[in-house]
Amino acid sequence: MTSKLTEAAKGVYIIAATPFTDDGALDLQSVDTLTDFYIRCGVDGFTLLGMMGEAHKLTAEESIEVVKRVIARSGGRPVIVGVSHAGLENVRRLSHEAMVAGAAGVMVAPPAGLKGDDGLYNYYAQVFAALGPAIPVVYQDYPQATGVYLSPAVFERLVDDFRQLVMLKHEDAPGLAKLSRIREGESKPGRRRVAILVGNGGLYLPQELRRGADGAMTGFAYPEMLVQVCALFAAGKAEEAEDLFDAYLPLVRHEVQPAIGLALRKEVLFRRGAIRSPRQRAPGSSLTATDRAELEAMIVRLERRLAAAGRAHRLAAE
Amino acid sequence: MTSKLTEAAKGVYIIAATPFTDDGALDLQSVDTLTDFYIRCGVDGFTLLGMMGEAHKLTAEESIEVVKRVIARSGGRPVIVGVSHAGLENVRRLSHEAMVAGAAGVMVAPPAGLKGDDGLYNYYAQVFAALGPAIPVVYQDYPQATGVYLSPAVFERLVDDFRQLVMLKHEDAPGLAKLSRIREGESKPGRRRVAILVGNGGLYLPQELRRGADGAMTGFAYPEMLVQVCALFAAGKAEEAEDLFDAYLPLVRHEVQPAIGLALRKEVLFRRGAIRSPRQRAPGSSLTATDRAELEAMIVRLERRLAAAGRAHRLAAE
Amino acid sequence: MTSKLTEAAKGVYIIAATPFTDDGALDLQSVDTLTDFYIRCGVDGFTLLGMMGEAHKLTAEESIEVVKRVIARSGGRPVIVGVSHAGLENVRRLSHEAMVAGAAGVMVAPPAGLKGDDGLYNYYAQVFAALGPAIPVVYQDYPQATGVYLSPAVFERLVDDFRQLVMLKHEDAPGLAKLSRIREGESKPGRRRVAILVGNGGLYLPQELRRGADGAMTGFAYPEMLVQVCALFAAGKAEEAEDLFDAYLPLVRHEVQPAIGLALRKEVLFRRGAIRSPRQRAPGSSLTATDRAELEAMIVRLERRLAAAGRAHRLAAE
Amino acid sequence: MTSKLTEAAKGVYIIAATPFTDDGALDLQSVDTLTDFYIRCGVDGFTLLGMMGEAHKLTAEESIEVVKRVIARSGGRPVIVGVSHAGLENVRRLSHEAMVAGAAGVMVAPPAGLKGDDGLYNYYAQVFAALGPAIPVVYQDYPQATGVYLSPAVFERLVDDFRQLVMLKHEDAPGLAKLSRIREGESKPGRRRVAILVGNGGLYLPQELRRGADGAMTGFAYPEMLVQVCALFAAGKAEEAEDLFDAYLPLVRHEVQPAIGLALRKEVLFRRGAIRSPRQRAPGSSLTATDRAELEAMIVRLERRLAAAGRAHRLAAE
Fold first, then answer.
1. Rounded alpha-carbon distances, angstroms, from residue C209 to A148, C152, C183, C239
2. Subunits that touch chain B (at least 3 Cβ pairs < 8 angstroms)?
3. Which of A51, B42, C204, C308 is deepest in the core (most CB within 10 A)?
4. Is some CB atom of chain C closer than 8 A to the CB atom of B304?
5. Structural contact between residues B192 and B239, judged by C-beta atoms closer than 8 angstroms
6. Which distant-in-sequence residues (6+ apart) come within 8 Å of C24 by Cβ?
7. pLDDT for D173-206, tens place per residue?
8. Would the CB atoms of A177 and D253 count as touching at under 8 Å?
């Protein structure tokens, strides 16, 4: 059981990969080692069953099993559970299951096909009515996948009207202007300041932190970079943070490739000892020998660069 | 238990609506009365858990419950179960559950994002490998929802290579040329002729029957029209069939409206006594007083026209 | 020179086809005969260079040539010219060219990619500023092509703020509820009532007229039906209007097919003597022998049905 | 007049920005200074009127004016002109205008809505037939904008059947596997090796060069980096090339942001003295004070890093 998510959340909420064995079974042992790996990397919390990754390939039973397993091992770190579903009743049911299992809050993306500012507002009004005031909610803003645009104006209406909305998972592209615009809007008397964690693989993390983001919610395979960058920013060392970020940027950029990105991410997690197999459940992408050699060369370059910067790159899993 | 689906399937496979009570619970009693209603209308088979309708708002348990309930009451008529899922393992699992429950076959739509003729072929090759040769498969071709185009060339490769592919659910738009093209391609020595049932609410049913379709797989709220049109065509009375079709065309056209169409369909089924409530599970569309008056006026016009044509319009549920 | 478009516009504004010779040249002689044909059918006005049809295959010179040719022959009937363009400066330039040539107003669709209610409002505010108060504007609401949803709330803001916005070309799908909603909103004190003409091939024309539409703006190849249906409605003979509409509905439905619809429309216009060739500029769809026989059979059925109804179907071009 | 484009093309073909004055007029003087700037940066050729940028906001007259202006100042470097258009006749006409003006070849993207491998092949077969064998053609593969996927199999059919297809502008995402796959396919006896230049802002340029790309066709505001990276690779200094690339990567990544990217690019070109105004023609994005400060900080970081690497960063326009 973790304490509930609030507007004060910050830092790195890692989007956990879903490990499978080589024959495609859910690998609960790797769920454990991966959770431990993320904790060693210093993450502040977890996000499970998000839109990306392979959660949509799990059965309902496997999903809740993963949630429970991670919560049991999270050492009290908050766990957010993705509960987006085509039916509101299922959103409600999944949310209650997650909260009963000890989640800190739930994350809801709008269903494809919502139309207009009012259509979007009304959907979330229904969601909040169905969940009740006691379940903290994260708005997942990922229009590249949902096709639904969240305007700052609608977000502010939702923040003003529903106290359980405590966080924005920010993943629009381009999104820097929206982020600044939402933070500026919070100067309005009476408006709450909600937490904003950013996605998109962290590709614009330094810029987003400068514009008021509170941290990252993404699944980059070197979470310790995300953690250190956020920590350096919080300590007022923005330039140093960005230097570190830039060292990893070639890999960050490599991992944000559509389709193949997840295969690369799991390959790195596998090489780092965090999971027993890089396999995806079918249908999934896989790496060629060329892909693997290319990735390896990038890792060598990263380590060389970190070493040159006087920074010992340690495999967190060691 | 029904016998397995084959290339010889024909007639009307109704896409069954999913009935809920006024408070949103799955209404199994209405599943029974609706099944009986469809049978009285003369349907040849059933299609459950398709892409449209509200199957995606059911839990996994509810889904299989509906499947079993309809099969138990279908009087041996074949039941096809939609098993499309993001994960192949789930496609396999759902298919086996459906077949064990007595289904005649399964229906699989391609997942969004497949690219190119080869990408599509390879996906289905994986599906057929996962399901094995004993489960008859319907290809659901509905690019308006999936974004995946099926070319005649790819379909023919699949038909030639996988004997378990026995039916095309044809719902592309425009689709008349594709239908003709596939039928022409069957003149190639050694190629099987598969069954083709058409969707799109039946909007082009007479044209499609003339071009070689074997029937309809759709959910129009007056299934007896679909049944009679198919029967008249089979009896060589094409003009008479089209006369009957044209009488219903204003309602067919009304029901194919996106978003609101399902609300209209359930309202008609409710008025005809087939289900206890026209309610959809949230989030769903609902009818205004204007919508209802408009629908009622159309039904009055339909009955007047059928009466004028010397045809007694009987409510199947009476 | 025609008088300017106002909120009082009503009836049928035909979306004119663009005729080409068999070798693909713009066929100005057929532009003349087609214009005459439309006038004989009783249309109230013309819409040129809309999104559909083949205007986008014309050169800039050909486009303005067509506009001038139709205006010269329109007998004073108002001509609306589509001026949508990726650049605002081009929207302005095309609009002025059209007005100088004698157009009654211009039609503007939103560019793909506009986001949120405010994004849409701001775009049109820029358009209105660029065009000035003297050019009447039609909002073309066709989200199936633009991907941009117009909410009633945004439309009302635009109507309240910009007097030059005098008409809505209504073509959303589903759109009946939006139409009713906009008409209801006009009961607000001080709000103007704008003209609403409907598209979508006229597929829901009777329902839309009952809900407050003022007529049709579409290109159905039997414009006399659109004209008579609107006239009968205006004369309080709604049921008679719908009887007539229903007689043509099989063809209306046939012509709304994506991709192939335009080929069918030009084929009918060609058979009716309105244009010298049914050819489209490449790349375009063309009809097979099966398509042509199917169309011919539908026309025979239409004529039989009209004759049975005691209505002499006259080819307007005769 | 430049010599015609061949399969041997390589290096950097810069996608030229379109400069406007502060009041939105085409700025031909800046076209000149920008062309000079690009040449000082070392580009091997130019690409004009591509899909991105603001070419679609030009009038037809302005477009050809820009083409002539750049060709006149290009010093014999090859100029490729984008000629994609909804009408094939316009593709033909624009291509001939471009070639008469001295272009080295034309670039054609598939129109949205093409379906299936055969649909794509047939479209280009029509294009090649319309252009004749004398005009070199670049296939612009940018599915993020067109929605049309090019499979390696279709590209190979086109290469095998049409000698005038000499280059692939590669911009799919993810695209690394496709690039490798096409290069591997060229080992087939008798198949030509065509040039491949890569886009996507150069985000994966080192990886793409290692996989067989011949250079870049993109508009990054520091073209000298693209030029040097290509040159170092050609000289066998891949690691050094990648070091240089990585120094610019934060800016490369910043500039690939949708919507705002072009504003950033023009701002940099303006700061570097290449154009007189960073203004876009309406409707366009613009930069806030925050955006500008952020960009400036990135440039400072870049210069610091280049200096640290012992590399004097010279403003090419100085």
1. 32, 18, 12, 12
2. A, C, D
3. C204
4. no
5. no
6. C279, C281, C282, D89
7. 989 999 999 999 999 999 999 999 999 999 999 9
8. no
For the segment B31-87, what is each residue's pLDDT rounded down to a tens digit? 999 999 999 999 999 999 987 678 889 999 999 999 999 999 999 999 999 999 999
* Across A80-102, average pLDDT: 96
| Chain A residues close to C154, C-beta within 8 Å | 116
Give A154: exposed, middle or buried? Use CB within 10 Å, 0-12, 13-18, 19+.
buried
Name the neighbours of C, counting chains with at least 3 Cβ pairs within 8 A: A, B, D
Q: Any residues with CB less than 8 A from the CB of B289 and at least 6 apart, and which? A: none
DSSP A281: P
Instruction: State yes or no: pLDDT of D161 exceeds 60.
Output: yes
Whether the CB-CB separation of C24 and C279 falls below 8 Å is answered with: yes
Tokens of A123: 């959907």
Write down the residue that tokens 């050819």 correspond to: C279
Residues C294-310: what's their mean pLDDT?
Answer: 94
Chain A partners within 8 Å of B112 (Cβ): none
Cα separation, D68 vs D72, in Å, equals: 6
User: What phi and psi, each to the nearest 5 degrees, are found at residue B196?
Assistant: -125, 115
Q: Look-up: residue for tokens 């932190």? A: A209
- Judging contacts by C-beta atoms under 8 Å, the chain D residues touching residue C64 are none
E-state strands within chain B: 11-15, 45-48, 79-82, 105-108, 137-141, 165-170, 195-198, 215-216
C contact residues 68-107, partner D, Cβ 8 Å cutoff: 85-90, 93
**ipTM score assigned to the predicted complex:** 0.96
Q: Which chain D residue's Cα is nearest to B154? A: D116
Task: Dump the DSSP string for A208-272.
Answer: HHHTT--EE----S-HHHHHHHHHHHHTT-HHHHHHHHHHHHHHHHHHTSTTTHHHHHHHHHHHT
pTM of structure:
0.96
Q: How many residues does chain A have?
A: 318
Tokens of C225: 């039906």
Q: Does A164 touch chain D (CB under 8 A)?
A: no
Q: Mean pLDDT, to the nearest integer, of D250-273?
A: 96
Residue B315 to residues A49, B261, B269, C168, C285, Cα–Cα distance (Å): 47, 21, 10, 41, 43
Measure the CA–CA gap between A169 and A216, rounded to whole angstroms. 9
- Chain A residues touching residue C115 (CB < 8 angstroms): 149, 151
Q: For chain D, positions 273-302, list CB contacts with chain B under 8 A.
A: none
Q: Are B195 and B167 in contact (CB under 8 A)?
A: yes
Residues of B in contact with A85 (CB under 8 A): 57
pLDDT in tens, B78-126: 999 999 999 999 999 999 999 999 999 999 999 999 999 999 999 999 9
Residue type, C287: L
- Adjacent-strand bridge partners of C215: C11, C197
Separation in Å, CA B69 to CA B24, B101, B135, B274: 18, 10, 21, 16
Which amino acid is present at A2? T
Q: How many CB atoms lie within 10 A of CB C53?
A: 21
How many whole angstroms separate alpha carbon B69 and alpha carbon B61?
A: 12
